Amino acid sequence: MSQSSIASALRRDAQHNRAxxxxxxxxxxxxxxxxxxxxxxxxxxxVGAGTLYRHFPNKDALLAALLILHYESxxxxxxxxxxxxxxxGRALELxxxxxxxWMLAYEGLPEPLRAACRVESPLTPTCHAVIATTExxxxxxxxxxLARRTMTGRDIFFGALAIAWASGATAAxxxxxxxxxxxxxxxxxxxxxxxxxxx
Length: 199
Prior knowledge:
The chain is mainly alpha-helical and 199 residues long. The protein is built from nine helices and no strands.
């Protein structure tokens, strides 16, 4: 076997290992939470810790790889919202709902996402991209007088993150997410003037 054939076989083997680890991690995080340890994932995948860490140096790197597909779904939803909703305030509301679904892809995901906004991690670029999109959708609502000028995309992102965290808590009630989402909506909406011009 030539050197190039050996190298090609090794690359295929590495790609197979990576795909297998991702599938095992997806199932483990989906069945339990993102608190599943890297060692447990290596054991479930039937690979050594060295193999796991060569592909994913830490859990955030593993999560970032798993969230690529979820992010693609979120961006597809954004396209649908922007194409189908002419009311900028309603578009913002639908985007926050989509954000919440994305943040609940795995139990316990809100905490790593929050941390990634504070300390650089493999999840940070995705968080920044989502915040930038939220800022743009919020600005459209602000330009139409439907959202407070004092709000930022980062504020909305962290508000949605807090709702996702509370919704995922074991003590949360069935309506927790809807109640908190209404609170957030009432917080970003620009108050309508009362008769006589008072807010």
